[in-house]
Amino acid sequence: MEAVMKGDLVVLLGEISMKDREKVDAPQIARDVIKEVGYDCQETGLDYQTCRIVTKIPMQSKEITDAIRDRKAKKEDLGAGDQGMMFGYATDESGDDSFHPLSHLFANRITHKLCELRKSGDIEWLMPDCKSQVCMKYKTEETTVEPVSVHYVIVSTQHKTGIDSKEIEATVIEKVIKPIIDDKYLTEETKFIINPSGSFVVGGPQAVSGLTGRKIISDTYGGWASHGGGCFSGKDPSKIDRTASYYARYVAKSLVASGLAKRVMVELAYAISVSDPLCVHVTSYGTVKEGYTDEDLLEVAKNNFNFRPYQMIEELKMRRPIFKKTTVFGHFGRNNP
User: Fold this and answer.
1) pLDDT tens, 161-189?
2) Share above pLDDT 90 across residues of the chain, in percent, rounded to a whole number
3) Which of 13, 84, 188, 335 is 20–30 Å from 256 (CA)?
4) Rounded Cα–Cα distance for residues 312 and 237 (Å)
5) Which stretch of DSSP H or E encloses residue 28?
6) Nearest to 269 by CA among 241, 298, 237
7) What 3-state class would DSSP assign to 36?
8) Closest CA to 326 of 206, 235, 204
9) CA 247 to CA 226: how far, in whole Å?
10) Are 71 and 225 in contact (CB under 8 A)?
């Protein structure tokens, strides 16, 4: 399922194969989500009550269903739902159990903070549309990289009309950025760039079109790792873009958490309907623990993790209703139940 939005038009596209699919009220689900995000009146850029919703949601192609599931002898032989390459990344630079690149972690947390302050009413003039970007200075020692300081922070946030730009800048810096970024990373040279385009009253789909999965780098690691190109949102667990990317992250995180390396990227590759991966590759960027090699990390991964689709889905319990939480503030780096 994908969503396309522009102006007051919302288009829902995709394929759903399930029992009692007629009971799924897709337009109402869309309206509920739009309201929850904060688009509840024309002033915000979209009104969940009056927007037009068009749907085109047929059954999944029988050829695909047969290839990945129905022609398999056992459910454990579930085939990959598509072809492609997937990557997972982890690093210990944040110093906590997120094992996520710090610059991207800060950017995600800033937008989360904006959302919290808007919904709580603590900053009354905030509107739903916002984004952030954090650039950090790193120190390189042989094969390791260590965060030193924040070079700049960009925050663009929609606001109600009539709010002075100086008030917006001061409020965002004091109430949003500083509570998120540790003092040790903020220096006299750190630049705060708040709403660089000036007034940002018109936002959301009234200002620009939106499409599911357009921001795949924001969804993952902020440019720190490779990306196979396929988005995650809107896809059920049978779609390998989502499941294998989550699993590759799980494996990379496990290798770093165990102390076998300081940074790890795991690469997987699949062909549609084929159960076994075509490729499993591990790189530590030279940070592997003394006495080990990347080949050793690969053996550890192969001996302790199962990269077949059914087994990945079962191990990560991906049939739970958990995907909604991943649609904002990144898919990784948070400890959501």
Assistant:
1) 999 999 999 999 999 999 999 999 999 99
2) 88
3) 84
4) 9
5) helix 26-37
6) 241
7) helix
8) 235
9) 15
10) no
